[in-house]
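sry for the spam today, last one i promise. struct tokens for design, 482 residues
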């Protein structure tokens, strides 16, 4: 696959397609699956449309069309072009299937239009006709130019634009980086007065990266009318120079912060058409450590972790809650009656770690868990194996607090008491590995309280955080108010 650092891909014929996150090889031969892709905006839509069609058609059947108007490329073979009427009135499935087969044999897309105008421009088909073609399942991809920009790098859509088919699963808003630093006028933007209103820039003022980003993400801008659930991948074209590339990277960072899934920085008419592929930063990887090695002295002779609570063992309840959260990976530290607990957890996708020093206190289990986590793990959530009420949603709420706060420690509070699970940053791992005895990580938490984020839960949620230390605790928990 294409490296996100930019430049050429190792695959010679899927440069733009891979950069945009498309994989035609994932569509099984003979599959009726059809992906409709709509391109909007300005700054190289038509170039991107036909380049993408050319790349994908080497591996799948491809229809290239428009819901507006486009020029037919020079020297386009007549056998790879068909007219079906703007409302689909000339659409015949058999004839279109034959035309697609002929184009596919030549490893070319089939260009489909509504009609040919007197000026030589192709008038497109209605969005409902695109939906009809998608349902027909004749092609693996339907690429739709769903906007017109009159050759300008930017576009302010009118009330009826862009014309995105409801079957579109991907929308590619396009903008030309040759607009950066230029005054906002009719030379750089189609309908500059609409761009001015959308991005809050007066006519004639310089266009900055933030203005382009705003145009691409605004609900009334380039992606207006995108179907709910459609993926959005931005294409920033014409980044041939250092100045344009630097500006494009600024636009891309803003777009990713605003929730755009992927941004491709390109110079499509150069020998190196893809310059960068930018993705959102991966969230911190937080592993889970479930402490399940203790001897349960206060519980009596039985192992409390194997006691049944609402149809399953206590340790299974805790493990299933952790597995339902975003923790990855998950390790369970075993000690007392290790074989019985391991047997109870057979089949669960967790790593079981033996702590032969468990009699020396909880700190030995914590250290064993930290040492078992992969190097790329940025933090650990420490969960007690006897927290019968813990849930995946509570764990994920603590994870959200860790990711948003930048704190070294995240700890829940309920009923004016600090509880478990506790999330500990990798920065603290060296200190934690120096611990001894039965205090666990408490002294490290106390030492760094000024760097901790406390997440408060209402007192009525105390049962979520209670740990089961004795038979009385277990009976009270079983008889708690529902």
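last one done:
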């Amino acid at each position: 696959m294409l490296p996100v650092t930019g430049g050429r891909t190792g695959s010679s014929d899927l440069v733009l397609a891979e950069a945009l996150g498309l994989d035609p090889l994932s569509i099984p031969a003979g599959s009726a699956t059809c992906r409709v892709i709509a391109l909007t905006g300005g700054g190289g839509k038509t170039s991107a449309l036909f380049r993408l069609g050319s790349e994908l058609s080497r591996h799948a059947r491809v229809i290239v069309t428009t819901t507006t108007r486009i020029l037919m490329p020079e020297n386009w073979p007549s056998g790879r072009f068909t007219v079906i009427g703007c409302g689909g009135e000339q659409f015949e499935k058999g004839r279109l299937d034959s035309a697609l087969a002929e184009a596919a044999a030549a490893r070319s897309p089939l260009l489909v239009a509504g009609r040919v105008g007197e000026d030589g421009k192709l008038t497109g088909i209605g969005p409902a006709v695109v939906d009809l073609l998608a349902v027909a399942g004749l092609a693996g991809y339907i690429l739709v130019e769903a906007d017109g920009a009159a050759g300008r790098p930017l576009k302010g859509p009118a009330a009826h634009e862009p014309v995105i088919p409801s079957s579109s699963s991907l929308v590619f808003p396009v903008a030309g980086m040759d607009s950066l630093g230029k005054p906002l006028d009719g030379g750089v933007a189609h309908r500059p007065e609409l761009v001015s209103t959308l991005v809050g820039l007066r006519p004639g003022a310089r266009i900055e990266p933030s203005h382009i980003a705003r145009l691409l993400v605004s609900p009334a801008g380039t992606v207006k009318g995108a179907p709910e659930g459609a993926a959005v991948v931005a294409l920033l074209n014409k980044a041939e120079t250092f100045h344009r590339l630097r500006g494009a990277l600024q636009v891309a960072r803003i777009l990713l912060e605003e929730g755009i899934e992927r941004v491709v920085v390109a110079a499509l008419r150069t020998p190196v058409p893809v310059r960068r592929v930018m993705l959102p930063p991966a969230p911190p990887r937080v592993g889970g450590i479930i402490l399940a090695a203790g001897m349960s002295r206060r519980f009596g002779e039985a192992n409390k972790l194997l006691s049944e609570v609402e149809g399953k063992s206590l340790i299974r309840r805790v493990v299933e809650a952790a597995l339902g959260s975003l923790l990855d990976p998950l390790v369970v530290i075993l000690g007392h009656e290790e074989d019985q607990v391991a047997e109870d957890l057979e089949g669960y996708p967790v790593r079981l770690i033996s702590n032969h020093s468990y009699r020396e206190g909880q700190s030995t289990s914590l250290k064993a868990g930290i040492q078992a986590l992969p190097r790329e793990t940025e933090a650990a959530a420490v969960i007690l194996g006897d927290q019968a009420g813990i849930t995946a949603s509570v764990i994920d709420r603590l994870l959200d607090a860790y990711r948003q706060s930048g704190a070294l420690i995240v700890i829940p509070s309920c009923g004016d008491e600090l509880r478990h699970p506790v999330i500990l940053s990798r920065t603290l791992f060296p200190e934690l590995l120096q611990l001894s005895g039965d205090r666990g990580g408490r002294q490290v938490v106390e030492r760094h309280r000024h760097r901790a984020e406390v997440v408060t839960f209402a007192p009525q949620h105390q049962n979520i955080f209670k740990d089961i230390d004795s038979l009385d605790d277990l009976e009270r928990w079983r008889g708690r108010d529902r």
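The chain has two domains: 15-278, 286-478. ok im logging off now
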